[in-house]
Amino acid sequence: MRSHLTIAWSLAAALVLGAFTYRVGGRPPSVSPTPADGHTIHVLAPHVVNGQVSGPYHHYCKVVSPEPFIECLIYLSTDSNANLVQIEYIVAKTVTRTNAIPLAVWNKNWHDHAQEIATGRVQVLDLPPDDAKKVADLVAQTDGIIFDLWPHGAKVPDGSVRIGRSVGHVSLTAAEKFRFSTSGNR
C-alpha cells in the first residue's frame, strides 16, 4: 500500500512539475508541433449571437492554407485560462461565393469581412500598424462563419451550437455572391 502511495505522489509531482515547465518554459523540446500552434494573429471584434451583441471577442488566428483559409480560436478575454467559446473559419470569397455554399445558407450563416472591417469594430492587435493593415486587407477578401460553443453566462457548455454573426451583417443578392467566382465554379 505504501509503495502505491509513493508511486501516486511521484506521478502527481511529475505531472505538476511537467505542467509548470510547460507554462514557464514552453513546450518540452521532445514534443512535436501540434495543430494548435501558430494561432498568433490577435483580433478583437464583437459578434451577434441569438440576436444579441456580445463580446468583444479575442480571436487568435492562423492561416491554414493560402486561398486564404484561416481558423480562429475565440475567447472572451486574454487570460491564459480563458475558456474557448467560439471558433471562426475565415475562407476566401473565391471559395465561399460559389455554388459550394447556397445563397440562402450564406445569408443565414456567413458574413462578409470587408463589410465587418468597414464598420470600424474590428481591431488587429499586437502588430505594428502597417502589418495590422496588411492583415485587415487580406481578411477583407474573405467571408467568415462563427460557431458559438458556450452559451453566454453559462458555467459549462451545454452541447448546443449557435451561429455567431458580425455586427451589422448584410445579406447578399445572387449578383453580389457570385461576383468573386469564376464561371467554372459558379
Radius of gyration over C-alpha positions, nearest whole angstrom = 20 Å
In spatial order, strands of the major sheet run 1-2-3-4-7-8
Secondary-structure class: alpha+beta
Number of strands: 8
Order of helix and strand elements from N to C terminus? HEEEEHHEHEHEEH
- Net shape: globular
How many helix segments? 6
N- to C-terminal distance: 70 Å
DSSP helix fraction:
25-40%
**What is the average of the pLDDT values?**
83
Q: What are the segments in which pLDDT stays under 50 over at least 5 consecutive residues? A: 2-24
Instruction: Report the β-strand fraction as a percent range.
Output: 25-35%
Biggest beta-sheet profile: 6 strands, antiparallel, barrel
Structure keywords:
186 residues; alpha+beta; 2 domains; six-stranded antiparallel barrel; 6 helices; 8 strands; 30% helix; disordered N terminus
Question: Could you walk me through the main structural features you see in this protein, from its secondary elements to its overall organization?
Answer:
This protein is α+β, with helices and mostly antiparallel strands and 186 residues long. It folds into two domains: 1-32; 41-180, no CATH class. Helices cover 30% and strands 31% of the residues. It contains six helices and eight strands, in the order H-E-E-E-E-H-H-E-H-E-H-E-E-H. The protein has a six-stranded antiparallel beta barrel. A hairpin with an 8-residue loop joins strand 3 and strand 4 (84-92). It is globular and about 50 Å long. The N and C termini lie far apart (70 Å).
